[in-house]
Amino acid sequence: MKRERPKPDDEFPLLTKRQLAELERRVADAMDPVRYVIVSSFLPKFSLFYCPSDGMFVMNEIPDTALFKRKAEALALARALKCGQPKRARRLRVIQVKKTKRSVRILEEVQVDGRTWKPKLRRK
User: Fold this and answer.
1) In 3D, which of 94, 95, 101 has the Cα closest to residue 80?
2) pTM for the predicted model, two decimal places
3) Which of the residues 25, 36, 37, 55 could staple to 74 if both were Cys, CB 3.0 to 4.6 A apart?
4) For 58-67, how does the pLDDT look when each residue is reduced to its tens digit (9 = 90+)?
5) Number of folded domains in the chain?
6) 117 with 44: CB under 8 angstroms?
7) Strand partners, 94
């Protein structure tokens, strides 16, 4: 699909190809519904999701403030949270979720002590 380039304007000069490509990449990144969340999952029906804005864990519910756009940011915070904990208590995982219009859908499974499951969320 070929786009027509607008005519140059004194107020808004034409973008270069590099600038246009960067702009399209950023728009595509912003529209991507994939997010990451830090979870401490004990059982399929009992999971705690970390909410960095409050500094607290929320049970079986993922608020919008608990979602990270970048996996690297979520991993860095999870590592920082694990530092002060004893080895047995280090059960924090970063999992991938998909933000939908009404809620969040969990895409990845959690693995704890050789068992694997997808955490269940509370229905609203």
Assistant:
1) 94
2) 0.74
3) 36
4) 888 888 889 9
5) 1
6) yes
7) 38
